[in-house]
Structures are given as C-alpha cells and as structure tokens.
Specification:
- The chain is mainly alpha-helical and 260 residues long.
- It has two domains: 111 residues, no CATH class; 74 residues, no CATH class.
- 68% of the residues lie in helices and 0% in strands.
- The chain contains nine helices and no strands.
- Helix 7 runs antiparallel to helix 8.
- It is globular.
Length: 260
C-alpha cells in the first residue's frame, strides 16, 4: 500500500520499492530509539532489579509504541472515513478540530498534546546535560549545556527541526554506533557493565567516528546507503569488537563498593 501510495497518478513518478519502504521505516525507528536506548541504559541503572528494567522496556517502549502506533492508524482511518483526508492540511490551526469533530474538542486535544510534550523535553534535556558534564568534566557545564541549548533554539527557529527525516537520520547516525559499541562492550564484559574506563576509550571513539561517517553518508550525498542508521549501528558494533580485541579499550577503573 505504501509503495502504491508513493506513485503519483498520471505523473509517471514511481514511489519507493518495498525494500525502500522497509529501509525508510528502519531509519525512523533506529533514529528515534537510538537516543532512547542510550539514555535508557543510564536511567535503568537506577532500578533495583533486572525485572524493573524489563518491565520499563515492555511498558515504556513496546506498549507505548503499540498504543501510539495503533492510535495513529485509528485516527487516520477515522479521518478518511469522515472524508477529511482529501485536502486536509495538517499544519492548519483547524486541523485538530476537523479530526476531533468540534472546535472545542480540537483545542482541548491540542492543549493536551502541548502538555504531553513537556515531560520528554525536560527529561531529555536533563539526560543531555548529564552527558555533557560526564564527557567534558573540565568544561563549565554552563558553556557546554548553553551551546547545546543555543543549537536547539536555532533548529527550532529555522524550522530545520521539522524535517523529521533529516533529524532522525542525524540522530541515528550519532547514536547508532554508540549503541552498537555499548552492546559489544556489554557482551564482552560477560553481559554486565564493565565499569567506567580511564581516559579516552579509543575503541569507543574510533567506532563512533567511523559509524557516524557511515550514517551521515546519504545525508551529505557521499553514498546512498539504505537504512544508514542501522548500518552505523552495525559498523560501530563490529569495529568496537575488533578494536577491543586489539587492546584499544580503556582501562576499567575500580569502583569502591557501597557500604550497606
């Protein structure tokens, strides 16, 4: 259906192939969940038991995706069933009112959507700030976090953040190899966190740089790599494994055990 929908009637323009649609979906999924996966590892360490982490993944990731995806399908089907699909402008202020059936319900739903955006925005900002301070401990957090804030404002004001495909491609290219390297590090350590490493972990940095280059290649026009964020994940994982075996991992620091 997606392939057929991509064909413009009478225009001779052919839509994506079946593989192209799958690759596009993978780009969206990896681009979205790469950051969630990387942040989830940090956040999951605060849980008491392994079961808590598993339940968090099942409810917060799997169930949330099913509910959100199912709701989107039902809403779109309902809109087309009411013959609202043709010519319906999603950017128009009246869009939500048209979908909900009344102006009051539309305004209420739009307000609720705005409120729902606050928790993930605040949480992601908190995680990003912690990451900046951890990665760059000698840099004033006001400067590192301030630069990140300025870039975020620039993306929002210019409208670049609205280019979902481009944003997810950059996010997937950035965090895909990170998640790949973290996965291999976890497996090599016996399915547990190895612990903090001293100095610069060359295996991790090299894996990230090469994986990021692979993920960004289609966006800058260097090479047409299908599902580039997934390819970045694989490259980061494989390269980290090779470099770790070559002895380029940083030394694991001893952590004093907490007293009961």
């Amino acid at each position: 259906a997606l392939v057929a929908a991509g064909t413009v009637e009478g225009g001779g323009t052919v839509g994506l192939s079946a593989f192209g649609v799958i690759a596009l979906c993978i780009t969206y999924v990896v681009g979205f969940f790469a950051t969630a996966g990387a942040a989830g590892v940090d956040f999951g360490m605060n849980n008491k038991e392994e079961k808590d982490v598993q339940m968090g993944g099942l409810v917060g990731v799997a169930l949330a995706a099913i509910v959100a995806g199912g709701a989107a399908i039902l809403i779109a089907a309902g809109a087309f069933g009411l013959k609202l699909g043709a010519g319906l402008d999603t950017a128009a202020p009246s869009f939500m009112s048209a979908v909900m059936g009344s102006e009051g319900a539309g305004k209420t739903m739009a307000l609720l959507l705005a409120v729902a955006a606050f928790p993930p925005a605040c949480f992601s900002s908190f995680i990003a700030a912690n990451s900046f301070k951890t990665t760059l401990p000698k840099v004033d957090p006001f400067i590192s976090v301030g630069v990140g804030t300025a870039v975020s404002i620039l993306l929002a004001v210019t409208g670049w953040a609205g280019d979902v495909m481009g944003v997810f491609s950059v996010i997937g290219a950035s965090f895909g190899p990170v998640c790949g390297a973290m996965m291999v590090d976890y497996l090599l350590a016996g399915k547990k966190w190895a612990g903090p490493r001293a100095g610069w972990n060359l295996a991790g940095w090299i894996s990230w740089v090469v994986g990021f280059a692979v993920g960004m290649a289609p966006l800058v026009g260097i090479a047409n790599i299908p599902a580039a964020p997934l390819a970045a994940f694989v490259v980061g994982a494989v390269l980290y494994f090779v470099l770790a075996k070559a002895g380029l991992e940083g030394k694991v620091l001893e952590m004093p055990a907490a007293e009961a």
